[in-house]
Design brief:
Length: 509
């Protein structure tokens, strides 16, 4: 049976990081918001209560029934979680005069405490709290202090219940991983056996049980997530998985054929559908970014629906949804505001009446890559940069024509090949070229030119939510710019985008 650590989210910006750290210990964990807790968690080994932007003293402070967990399973309260347990047990929690933010050092550690094993005195911890625990009930004992905060950490007697007022999950808490390991392995006694291989094995078993002899369709995008989902399902149900890979005419140069070939070599039952003419025709004359996205999304659904109807008796739709998407949509704050509508395979019409299977819904992005590696996904798919569903359609500013797509495909090709040759492709999270809707004056030979301008974008990121521009060396940028202008007729100027996200976004539209 799977062992699980439950992380109860009270809305802290660091909650996902706690889960990442626990997974790094090869221990399985799930995040659930405090107001949507499951009745039962399979193989529950312990509970971590997260921090929160709320004060425990606020009238609408988030609350849970602590008796459901305390004394029944080990509990670790982090920041708000620790303050909540102290307050509800009769301790005193107040907005402190000294708001503690940033670095602090542990000036006292109880050497006998299981939570503090192998953590040295003066260990640096990261504080981020406005409230503080001023006094604790008699059955609590202090197991760590800083010079400002006496109750930096406590244990409740006769229970495996602990509280800490600092954040072990952030990098600046230098022994944070040791503390989390002490809790998860030492106190909760979790086995550290969560790995890509064990995930593959157990998912295949689960998918076989869930799907039996049913048929499943899946829309491949050429990206890592849908490809890994397809491989897992293929291992589980073989030919009953029907994949559809649509050419929307907005892919990169040669991408459709190359990726289709890779899929076929992997043994996937995949149908390539060239719908490029339909997409380009439906986009004709549209230049508003959201309208373009909607036109592309709708055409995708039409094509997918048509193709799905050719396969008899399908009752499942598989999607490559990953954990951050799920956490985002069920988070304490609810789905985040729409900045750009993302049209992935998700939005199929209800009348298709398909049940949804999402084999990667509990994995983080880097774990998807590790699973892909374990499944021997070729590196041209495994390590490719993220690419938006609407493809070059949102990198051609303004309206889209076949000629513009061809031009941008060439520019993008020269750019990406140069990055690969220079050894920079794998250091960059995402790169691409953008065709601007303007012309500029140039001179080639003795001739005046009046031609197109392209912008190059390259960013580092971990999840696409925030990003910074990459400091590609000038010599490499110079070569890329020369190559583009020399090799792609119609372009006489190349610019480099030096904006971070926020305030910009990664794509220009
Ligand atoms: P932004 O531009 O919002 O992009 O900073 C963040 C990440 O999302 C990708 N992106 C999309 N992906 N459909 C997608 O499947 C879309 O409509 C879409 N728009 C942006 C973008 O490439 C980046 O990785």
């Amino acid at each position: 049976m799977i062992e699980t650590l439950l992380i109860i989210d009270f809305g802290s910006q660091y909650t996902q990081l706690i889960a990442r750290r626990i997974r790094e210990l090869n221990i399985y964990c799930e995040i659930h918001p405090y107001n949507k807790l499951p009745n039962k968690v399979e193989g529950l080994k312990g509970v971590i209560l997260s921090g929160s932007p709320f004060s425990t003293k606020a009238t609408d402070a988030p609350m849970i029934e602590l008796s459901k967990y305390r004394s029944k399973t080990p509990v670790l309260g982090v920041c708000y979680g620790a303050q909540l347990m102290a307050l509800t047990s009769g301790g005193d929690v107040q907005q402190s005069e000294i708001r503690e933010y940033g670095r602090a050092n542990l000036s006292y550690i109880d050497p006998k405490s299981a939570l503090m094993q192998d953590i040295p005195l003066q260990s640096q911890v990261w504080m981020s709290h406005a409230d503080t625990i001023l006094s604790i009930p008699d059955n609590f004992s202090v197991i760590a202090s800083t010079s400002n905060v006496k109750v930096a950490s406590y244990k409740i007697e006769n229970e495996e219940t602990y509280g800490i007022q600092f954040h072990p999950e952030v990098y600046h808490s230098t022994d944070g991983m040791t503390l989390l390991k002490n809790f998860a392995v030492g106190i909760c006694q979790c086995e550290q056996n969560w790995s890509p291989d064990s995930f593959v094995e157990s998912s295949i078993r689960d998918l076989q049980k869930q799907l039996g002899n049913d048929k499943v369709i899946l829309g491949l995008s050429g990206g890592v997530d849908s490809s890994v989902a397809a491989l897992l399902l293929h291992k589980a149900i073989g030919k009953n998985l029907h994949c559809i890979f649509v050419d929307n005419g907005l892919l990169r140069k040669n991408e459709f054929n190359q990726v289709l070939e890779s899929y076929k070599n992997l043994g996937l039952n995949v149908k390539g559908v060239d719908a490029s003419a339909e997409f380009i025709s439906n986009l004709s004359g549209i230049s508003d970014p959201e309208a373009k996205r909607k036109a592309i999304g709708k055409t995708f659904i039409d094509v997918f629906d048509r193709e799905a109807h050719q396969i008899e008796d399908v009752n499942w739709l598989a999607q490559g949804t990953i954990y951050p998407d799920i956490i985002e949509s069920i988070s304490v704050k609810g789905p985040s505001a729409t900045i750009k509508s993302h049209h992935n395979v998700g939005g199929l019409p209800d009348y298709m009446k398909l049940k949804v299977v999402e084999p990667l819904k509990l994995l983080f992005k880097d774990e998807v890559r590790r699973v892909g590696k374990a499944l021997k996904l070729p590196s041209n798919i495994l390590n490719r940069h993220p690419f938006p569903g609407p493809g070059l359609g949102i990198r051609i500013l303004g309206d889209i024509t076949v000629d513009k797509v061809k031009l941008l495909q060439e520019v993008d090709h020269v750019y990406i090949e140069n990055l690969k040759e220079a050894g920079w492709y794998d250091k960059i999270w995402q790169a691409g070229a953008v065709l601007l809707p303007i012309q500029s004056v140039g001179v080639m030979g003795d001739e005046r030119t009046y031609e197109k301008v392209v912008a190059l974008r390259a960013v580092t990121s971990t999840d696409g939510m925030t990003a910074d521009w990459v400091h590609i060396p000038y010599e490499i940028l110079a070569k890329i710019s020369n190559d583009i202008i020399n090799k792609v007729p119609g372009v006489n100027r190349v610019v480099y985008d030096i904006s971070s996200k926020p305030p910009s976004t990664i794509e220009w539209e």
